[in-house]
Design brief:
Blueprint (H helix, E strand, L loop, with lengths): L2 E4 L8 E4 L2 H41 L4 H8 L4 H10 L4 H8 L6
Antiparallel strand pairs: 1-2
Amino acid sequence: MTFKIEITPENPKGLKVDLTAEELTQKTQDVARATADKEAWIVKQNKEKTDAKAGNDKLVALGLSQDQVTAMTGYAPPSVRYQQLIDAGHTAEEATTISGYKPGE
């Protein structure tokens, strides 16, 4: 069973107590809500990345240079962002972690 630690003046180090049925129900609901919120956030982040790349690609296809598109939108493809990070003094590992770009792949 799931438990909680109750700290009281009589038990300053805490006492292990089983959750009530109501507390267990609430915990289950909280975990389900947090999981759904996290999944929704991931979907939103992925959509924003996909939309940014699609918009970038369309502007480049219209004849703008990547530098012009980045200046207008702030979006830089992962390979460009990686190089910007390297130029700014980051290690290759740091640049890969931040940009998500792995040279040679």
